[in-house]
Structures are given as C-alpha cells and as structure tokens.
Specification:
Layout (H helix, E strand, L loop, with lengths): L2 H20 L5 E5 L4 H6 L14 H4 L1 H10 L8 E5 L15 H12 L6 E5 L15 H6 L6 E4 L4 H9 L5 E2 L3 H5 L3 H7 L27
Parallel strand pairs: 1-2, 2-3, 3-4, 4-5
C-alpha cells in the first residue's frame, strides 16, 4: 500500500463508522485480528515496510491509532471496540515472533488512552505451547495491562466462561458458533438445557440453512 492508499483506508474506516451509526447500530468494532489488514500491519512477518508504518512496534501499530483518531471525530468512542488476536500463529499468514508480545503490549497500553467500549481479545486458535514468544493465556496477560472492559472469545462453553468471569480475567465472554446454532443460547444456559450442535458445512454459505433454521426450546 502506498501512503495515499493508507490514508484512503483510514478514511474508509471513518466512513464505515459513520454509516454504521447512521444505520442505527449500537456500536462498531474494529477488526484488528484474524489475519485481516490491521493485523497484517502489526505483524513483523507480514509488514516489511521501511516508512512510518513499519520497522518497529509503534510504527506498525500506527494505522490503528490513526483510524481511532479519525473515528472519534464522528463517533463517541464509548460506542467503539477493538478486536485483537495476539497469539495467532502459523495461520492466515501471521506468525508470533520475538516482537509480537512487545507490539501488542504497546497497543493495549496505548488503548488505555482511548475511552473505548471494550477490547475484544481472542485466545490462541492453535497450540502455541512450543512457541516461546507466544502468549498462551491471552486474557490473563492483558488483564494486568488494560484498565477498561475486556471481552474474551475462543471456544468457551458455559462452565469455562463462568470460570474466566469469576477469576476476573475478563468482564464478558462472547460466543460465535454456539449462538448460530442456538438462537436462545442465554435461555438454554439459564436452564442447563442441551445445545444444538452447529453444522460447520453451512458456515459462510448463502441461504437460511444453518443460520435461521435451528430449533429453539419448546
């Protein structure tokens, strides 16, 4: 990306925020995870720039804070969250390296300067126990750094979600696939009712099958 491309992209995020609030969304989340563009900037293995957007953790993270600085001119940051995946390793073109922890520590520390709704962290997608640079318990690590609300995600069930909340490592737990398969997930958890299993073959496919045809409790 040329500098003009980056500036245009920053403005696109700003316009996207304007559009979302105009469409009466409650808030927006910047997706800086899962190998998408912002995480590509953060990662040393995918960002080999030598200008002000690469070369060290502060510069690789610059685009995120330029986006937030633009968004806050048009949307209350109390309606904005940021999603991060610090221990994404070996997939989606991203690897955890000797500067990853330093980079995300810098990012999360600096996010304390922004009055966000929350940060949304993701536990590792893969086993990172053999990577000496990886953070194996993401929420425990960043709970010590971030002063605001933390949402955690990645394969939680009722019991593991309850534990992470009781331990104080996160303030909220988000669910993806369980909510797809169980539109009444909260009610099922309240009643300890069995869950529908999600059909992964219908993920990211068109039509209602696998999205709005799962049964609710009688």
């Amino acid at each position: 990306m040329k500098i003009d491309d980056i500036k245009r992209t920053v403005n696109d995020f700003k316009q996207g925020a304007i559009n979302a609030i105009k469409a009466e969304f409650d808030g927006i989340e910047l997706h800086a995870a899962n190998g998408y563009l912002l995480q590509q900037f953060f990662s040393k293995n995918s960002n080999n720039r030598t200008d002000q957007y690469g070369g060290n953790p502060e510069d690789r993270a610059r685009i995120l804070f330029e986006i937030l600085d633009e968004i806050k001119t048009v949307v209350d940051l109390k309606k904005v969250g940021v999603r991060l995946n610090p221990s994404l390793d070996g997939i989606m073109g991203i690897s955890v390296d000797d500067e990853t922890i330093e980079t995300y520590t810098y990012i999360v520390n600096k996010l304390n300067e922004y009055d966000l709704a929350y940060i949304h962290l993701i536990e590792p997608f893969t086993d990172v126990s053999n990577n000496k640079y990886a953070i194996q318990e993401v929420t425990k690590y960043f709970r010590k750094i971030y002063n605001g609300t933390i949402i955690i995600n990645r394969g939680f069930n009722k019991d593991t979600a309850t534990k992470v909340l009781e331990d104080g490592d996160a303030d909220l737990v988000s669910f993806g696939a369980p909510f797809i398969a169980n539109p009444d997930l909260v009610e099922r958890y309240k009643k300890d009712a069995p869950l529908n299993l999600p059909n992964k073959e219908t993920f990211y496919t068109p039509g209602k099958e696998g999205y709005i045809d799962y049964p609710t409790l009688n």
